Amino acid sequence: MNAVHFGAGNIGRGFIGEVLYKNGYEMIFVDINEAVIDALNAEESYQITICDDESQNVTVTGFKGINNGSNPEAVVEAIASTNLVTTAIGPNILPYIAPLMAKGIELRQQKGVTEALDMVACENMIGGSTFLKEKVYGELSEEGKAYADQYIGFPDAAVDRIVPNQTNENILDVTVELYKELVISESMMKQPNVRLDGVKYVDDLEPYIERKLYTVNTGHATTAYFGFANGFDTIDHALANEEIYQKVRKTLSETGQLLIEKWQFNADEHQAYIETTLERFKNPALKDEVTRVGRTPIRKLGYNERFINPIRQADERGLAIDGLIDTVVQILKYNDPADEQAVQLQAMLKEKSVEEVIKEVTQLQNQTIIDRIVKAYVD
Questions:
Q1: Which pTM does this prediction carry?
Q2: Neighbour tally for 351: CB within 10 Å
Q3: Would you call 378 helix, strand, or coil by DSSP?
Q4: Burial grade of 362 (CB within 10 A; 0-12, 13-18, 19 or more)
Q5: Residues 6 or more apart in contact with residue 187 via CB below 8 angstroms
Q6: How far apart are CA 24 and CA 9, in angstroms?
Q7: Average pLDDT for runs of 10 along the chain of length 379
Q8: What is the Cα–Cα distance from 93 to 88, expressed in whole angstroms?
Q9: Strands 152-153 and 157-160, how do they pair?
């Protein structure tokens, strides 16, 4: 068996790569990072270091790399003969790989391949594979769409593992936390008999995606923005500050109430999930930089993202959103000169009113919520 994986970065190698390797897949990593691709083709193995428990370190073998910038034809050929396609490249990059995926699907059709294929977007977003499918279908012919309807699946997934920025002597080696979770919607699969070890398959993925996004991602980012505002460099140091710790707990309590009411999660079990999440953030071995977690603030303020979406849903249910709003204010004030979106956001705030920027960036239409964010920002 072989798998084509888009994204040879730390998450691709240190999370999805580990899952594929442990399930016996030969891996083809696709990326435009020439140095990483060259290393993947030159080295026979790389090391995944588990910072929580080095006795569980993994030596990964059985891989090669393809540079999709310089050799797109090879990527198309690889897709035409693969058993699985995965991605870990970031939501914003998915549209750029859609044309290659479409060509790969149509080459499968031309070759008469009738083996089903699932394409799984392992991204920090709701409906990542559904979004990818939309972009891929936009590149397919009518015949290609009919073929894809029959043989190509785009099952959504929820992913969770902290992989911090790092520099290692071997460019391929990567350090990760022990905790990892990959959940896939089995109802959307074209290969329902495929069951990978280390992967959880569920009928309804949305509760798991929202639980992860509005606990792990929301909490992580909340820690980063308050940490940055208070001069902390890393997530663990920021969370060691009692005031920041309480702000993060307040935010996660609000998203928790939403998740419990919406999806009927057991309250005690969800509180335990929050506690586990906070302990993961405190891990001093990760040394996760607040600027890494806080990067792309404009994207994180998106209408369906980890702050505005739970704010909208909680407000509709009459639930508390004070902590979430306080964090949104910190995002608006986030001023990292090395972050392109942070620079752009601060420029917008100089040119326009806070209310105008909030409406433009968040796409919120609920004036009451907008007014509450403006008031918190001004105060």
A1: 0.86
A2: 9
A3: helix
A4: buried
A5: 155, 203, 204
A6: 20
A7: 97 98 98 98 97 93 98 98 97 96 98 98 93 98 98 97 90 96 97 95 93 96 98 97 98 98 98 97 93 97 96 98 98 98 98 98 98 97
A8: 9
A9: unpaired
